[in-house]
Write a structure and sequence with these properties.
Length: about 350
């Protein structure tokens, strides 16, 4: 580890390296020095089986963070280091280091005095909605061709359904027999869930730069409990606004956990859904009527897509997501599927909420 750290332009002599148990993909560590006031850092080993073009990925992050910093500077904002991630370069001015074993590493400045949530109140959801609406407005003018797709077809539901069909056909882990009912449930919804992808292809839903992983815990709050920084910028790419709206709702407007072992805990939290929608629509003033019309479908679609992804990984023998026990991907699948069923029951109300909030604008 020492050899890795010496590659980067760090201001602090690191005396402690703490692994963090966050995320399903990369490995993360907090680096601190002896003095509590020393600048601390967030080190990550990038999963390059998943992010195959690390240079392109890091370049995306640089473009987005530079863009945000410039906008904040122009607006006279002072505490920009609390609001935008800052990558640390290596001594040869690169944004990552590849070690002798072929691992890719990167370091951010650690944003101190912040916290994230796994579950929030409607008041915080309203603030979070404004934060994401503002974020979308700030990045809406980044020319689309500047960013690469760090994972091709990442939020393309048609592609995800095809991956599931392939997993079913090959059944590599022999897990199909007892889970066939889930295949049937998911495939019968495929047409409805692929509609936004078709509208995007036909140019009816515009492509916009999205974060594509707006899980509730990717938003940092400061010690006054105000949203301050959106983190985990690995999947910033062109998608439709349904992506970011939907993924937030999938994680925050769920009364249970993403992998809740008790399905009875899982339901749509409409108060959170409404508060976030209100905040988001107050700030995301660029949305077209078509985007507004399909926004609520985004919540179902992202839950559906996540169910499909966890399930395909289960059928493939757990090759993508980190798991904590052998049935974890199945547990995640049925928990996300239960959320989808609850969203289906409440879908009319969810649509009405978007309508009402967009009228108040
Ligand atoms: C993964 O690693 P993490 O937790 O940031 C995944 C997301 C999923 C999420 C499900 C690159 O994100 O797409 O929504 O797990 N990221 C990637 O919790 O696949
Ligand atoms: Mg992520």
């Amino acid at each position: 580890m020492e050899k890795i750290l010496t590659q980067f332009k760090l201001k602090t002599k690191i005396t402690d390296i703490k692994p963090l148990k966050i995320g399903h993909i990369n490995d993360s560590f907090i680096l601190t020095g002896e003095n509590p006031n020393d600048e601390s850092y967030f080190l990550q080993r990038i999963n390059h089986n998943i992010f195959k073009d690390v240079e392109g990925l890091q370049n995306n992050i640089r473009i987005v963070t530079d863009h945000l910093r410039k906008k904040y500077r122009e607006a006279g904002v002072t505490n920009i280091e609390q609001k935008v991630l800052q990558l640390i370069e290596t001594k040869d001015n690169k944004l990552f280091y590849k070690d002798d074993e072929g691992n890719y590493w990167r370091i951010y400045v650690n944003i101190v005095n912040t916290h994230s949530y796994e579950a929030i109140t409607p008041e915080l959801a309203y603030e979070a909605g404004k934060a994401y609406g503002n974020f979308h407005c700030m990045i809406v003018d980044i020319p689309a061709n500047q960013l690469i797709d760090s994972i091709p077809d990442f939020h393309n539901v048609e592609f995800r359904v095809q991956q599931l069909k392939d997993a079913v056909k090959e059944n590599p882990a022999g897990r199909l027999e007892k889970t066939q009912w889930m295949v049937d449930e998911l495939l019968k919804r495929a047409d409805e869930m692929c509609l936004p992808q078709r509208l995007y292809r036909e140019g009816k839903l515009p492509g916009r730069i999205n974060h594509c992983d707006t899980k509730i815990n990717n938003l940092l709050f400061n010690d006054k409990d105000e949203p301050c920084c959106i983190v985990d910028l690995d999947t910033m790419m062109i998608s439709t606004v349904l992506s970011d709206f939907g993924d937030f709702m999938r994680t925050a407007a769920n009364t249970g956990a993403e992998d809740d072992p008790n399905l009875d805990n899982i339901d749509v939290n409409l108060a959170i859904y409404e508060a976030y929608t209100k905040g988001y629509l107050e700030k995301a003033t660029f949305l077209t009527d078509t985007e507004l019309e399909y926004l609520a479908l985004g919540a179902k679609m992202l839950t559906y897509m996540q169910t499909v992804r966890f399930f395909a990984d289960y059928l493939n023998g757990d090759t993508y997501y980190k798991i904590q026990h052998p049935e974890h991907n199945w547990q995640r699948t049925i928990a996300q599927f239960r959320l989808l069923e609850q969203q289906e029951k409440k879908f009319e109300i969810m649509q009405q909420i978007v309508k009402n909030c967009s009228k108040d604008k």
